[in-house]
Amino acid sequence: MKHQLRLSTTQTILLSFLLAILAGSLLLALPVSSAGGEAVPYIDALFTATTAVCVTGLVTVPTVSAWSVFGQAVILLLIQIGGLGVITILTGLLIGLHRRIGIGDRMLIQDAFNLNTMSGIVKFIRKVLAGTFVVEGAGALLYMTVFVPEYGARGVWISVFNAVSAFCNAGMDILAEDSLCRYTLNPVVNLVTCVLIVFGGIGYIVWWDVVRVCRERKRRHGGCLRSLTLHSKIALSATAFLILAGAAAFLVFEYDNPLTIQAYTLPEKIMAALFQSVTTRTAGFATIPQQNLTNASALVSLLLMFIGGSPVGTAGGVKTVTVAVLLVFAFAAIRNREDASLFHRTVPRHAVSKAVAVVCMSFLILFTATVLLSLCTDAEALDIVYETVSATATVGLTRNLTPALNLWGKLIIIVTMYLGRVGPISLVIAFHTRKESSNLIKDPTEEISVG
Fold first, then answer.
1. CA angle (400, 157, 309) in 5-degree steps
2. Which of 79, 90, 139, 347 is most buried as measured by Cβ atoms within 10 A of its Cβ?
3. How confident is the model at residue 423 (pLDDT cuts 50, 70, 90)?
4. Are 355 and 322 spatial neighbours (Cβ–Cβ below 8 Å)?
5. Is the pLDDT higher at 240 or at 111?
6. What's the pTM?
7. Are 339 and 350 within 8 A, CB to CB?
8. 181 near 288, Cβ under 8 Å?
9. Terminal-to-terminal C-alpha distance of the chain
10. Domain parsing of the chain, residue ranges
11. What one-character-per-residue DSSP string does 357-380 give?
12. Which residue would you say has higher pLDDT here, 60 or 282?
């Protein structure tokens, strides 16, 4: 019986997020968490706890006005837990208490961060926690230069909340009900938010790889780039390309849109377009009302949201490396090549298999959520797809549909956000208990026509 009840590492990770959501929802359902002193409906407390732990940012009640300082502190804690992961937080506490990290804990960390080895895991966790708090602290200090003069002492709390939310790609803020639309033309808020989003979404593996290369001082003739691992090269290149290409697309599509950036100067238009490109990478902050975007810009946003950030970071989506692997293998197949390479390195076959699985499962979740949400609301099709993509990729951008969701709509988005955060592949693995037969026994092969 004890053996039967033992959870796998994947099941433990899924359960840890679920327990964090439930605990957070109970705290937010308390009257002390409400700004008005009366408990909010439990469904809204559950929705808020889910969006915080899943670092999504979709909200049914305004974070700035619906919650007390205690409620906002609970939300901030849930965002930090969701961004780093429950396993990371618990491991950090064990390290702080000088407790031994056993093999089971190391396996949990390996699965939580999708690492290829357990070597140096404790050191990795220490660096993750230290790096996170340093970056968030620096972001909070920079925010204070804007928010403290404007809000006084409360500006410190706003700065800390925004820094953690931006780094964790949560997209929740306590400034206004329209997100950062009041700061569309503020360069400090725009720049700090973008940097925090990118730092959180690029992935911890890339952080330490870049630090390693910089320490080795191999900067001549592109030496830095050549010394990076293949993962870092793909993540950095894909991130830069998507940000710049997205910004260019938004600038062109919104240039003469009177509802967004038409009245701005060219530098202001570029800043607004750049922010929109960065925030769609699963961050969820908005300096432009999403419902005012042109259809072309909305479609570009859907693509960027679905792709998301990079692996082993705080961002969601199917990830940049996943899409890059799929594209390079697609072009290799077009050229009748069995293997594909990136940066003069052959991409392993198991990577493309996993990439296909991730994209297919994510699309299945997205399609199912879109169909179900369409049955629960009479909103425009684009608004519904925008909502479900945002939930699946844990982005948090909405075309004003979230506050209008009914009970069934809220439940659908709650489940979608959870599935998007824990990952569709992890869910399948967690419930797949049937043992496979030996690899030596295979079914006969028969040719089929594809394409």
1. 50
2. 79
3. confident
4. yes
5. 240
6. 0.88
7. no
8. yes
9. 49
10. 2-428
11. HHHHHHHHHHHHHHHHHHHH----
12. 60
